[in-house]
Prior knowledge:
Blueprint: H1 2-9, E1 16-19, H2 28-40, E2 45-48, H3 54-64, E3 68-70
Parallel strand pairs: 1-2, 2-3
Helix pairs in contact: 2-3
Amino acid sequence: MVKKAVELSEITKVHAVIGGFHLIEADNERIQKTVEALKELGVKRVFTGHCTGFEAEALFAREFGKNFEKLHSGKVIEI
């Protein structure tokens, strides 16, 4: 979806991707490819929902560092 949004809008930078990534049942290869693709697209920040799953969240945290946050009820995101 991020790749298509970049193509349609011709934007050059994606500041953040926010939502559930539905990787909770994904294998390690799919998780790795997802994280790599977002990095290649230049995504700066990632906010993940519960359906992302622990394994994927751990990799997002490792790859995005302080630019990774887990979503929760009541969270305020400042852009």
